[in-house]
Amino acid sequence: MADLTLYHAAPSRSSTVxxxxxxxxxxxxxxxxxxxxxENRQPDYLAINPMGKxxxxxxxxxxxxxxxxxxxxxxxxxxxxxxxxxxxxPLRGAYLKWLFFAPSCIEPAILDRVxxxxxxxxxxxxxxxxxxxxxxxxxxxxxxPYLLGDKFTAADVVVGSGxxxxxxxxxxxELPEFTAYAQRLAERPAARRxxxxxxxxxxxxxx
Length: 207
What we know:
This protein is α+β, with helices and mostly antiparallel strands. The chain has helices spanning 15-24, 43-46, 67-77, 92-115, 130-142, 154-168, 176-186, 189-206; strands at residues 4-8, 28-32, 56-59, 62-65.
């Protein structure tokens, strides 16, 4: 039994953490949940994550939920993977900004566009508006291959998952910065392994 267990549904938001686990290169187990069968709403899983959502990770008895938080935790817990930024590094601020920007701005802006929901006044929306989110992200990706320049970090796993999701579902415009970034990320060996594993797990669930 590995020290790390991912509670996962294939594919879902927890695919971000599956990719992160491949990036850190540590042994891990996958506990597959069938969301259609509401296995995530059963008492045994609600004891792990009362929200009944995936992903969740158990690391030697420590439970972490929320994909961005999990990726941050894993990057810090396994610094040898080179995916975190030291606390005393000036880039730490930008690193944390992007880790929070993904779930608080990119994802809600994309979902708002996909679901065609009518938002409230702009000042009430944590992400502001779709065009502002796109502009900030586009400017960052135009400056270097990754969010922090030449250094690939957990922030790229989290933000990159949102960009790749948005590109697949046509929820993000096919701007050159986005397509090039998504392609760079898709070519990473860990991303390829995670994609292949997710496909196998999806077949297992269907079977």
